[in-house]
Amino acid sequence: MVPIDVCEPYFKFVEKYIELDSDIRQLIASYISEITFPQKHIILSEGGLCNKVYFIVSGTARSYYTDFSGITVTWSFHFNNNLSLIRNVFVTDYRAFLTGKPSSIAIETLSEVSALVFTKEAVSYLMEKSLRYEIWMRKLNEMAYVSMYDRAFSLLTMSATERYHKLLNDEPHLIQMFSNYYIASYLGIAPQSLSRIRTQR
Predict the structure, then answer these.
(1) Which residue range(s) make up the domain with 45?
(2) CB 86 within 8 A of CB 140
(3) 172 found inside a domain
(4) Does residue 66 contact residue 60 with C-beta atoms inside 8 Å?
């Protein structure tokens, strides 16, 4: 269990979607732990067991996978600020978390990261004990599905230039937050290709 005030960043995010009373706050806090990872730490390896969900409090990380040609592609960036989406603040391989199958992505920290930790057992228990938490998890699942669908759809159907312009339109803050190398990886292209696309604007 962690003190209630430590959980405030998480509660603040959840309350964008549902209300939490003092009882559910106390219950959630009793099943959360906190952790700090150093920079360049591998939180999860490809093929690893994923039985935890991390909520980013501070710092930056990325999730990535290795494609059929051996190229590393950034799947998502993880951080917590006013521009964060669901896939930014929560760090896990959700498919592996739900199914127990080996993870298809890896997660590494890009800076020191402080996070709140939920185990799979804790999530299941909270859903059983609290209707409010079950409602929250349903909303979270819906948003996670839409986010993953949009991400996969853009990689499969858009050209590199179209993906870049979508980034400028939807998430321009990422360009200021992360290096060109990681932005190119997020777009599924080489850094040199990103430079060429930018000069064509």
Answers:
(1) 4-128
(2) yes
(3) no
(4) no
Residue 185 domain-assigned (yes or no): no
> Which pTM does this prediction carry?
0.92
The CATH number given to whatever domain includes residue 49 is: 2.60.120.10
Q: How far separated are the first and last CA of the chain, in Å rounded?
A: 52
Which of 53, 59, 57 shows the shortest CA–CA distance to 13?
57
Measured in degrees and rounded to the nearest 5, phi and psi for residue 187 equal: -85, -10
Domains of the chain: total: 1
Q: Is residue 75, in this structure, part of any structural domain at all?
A: yes
Q: What is the pLDDT along the chain (201 residues), one digit of tens a residue?
A: 788 889 999 999 999 999 999 999 999 999 999 999 999 999 999 999 999 999 999 999 999 999 888 889 999 999 999 999 889 999 999 999 999 999 999 999 999 999 999 999 999 999 999 999 999 999 999 998 998 899 999 989 999 999 999 999 999 999 999 999 999 999 999 899 999 998 885
Q: Residue 96: inside a domain, yes or no?
A: yes
DSSP letter (8 states) at residue 108 = E
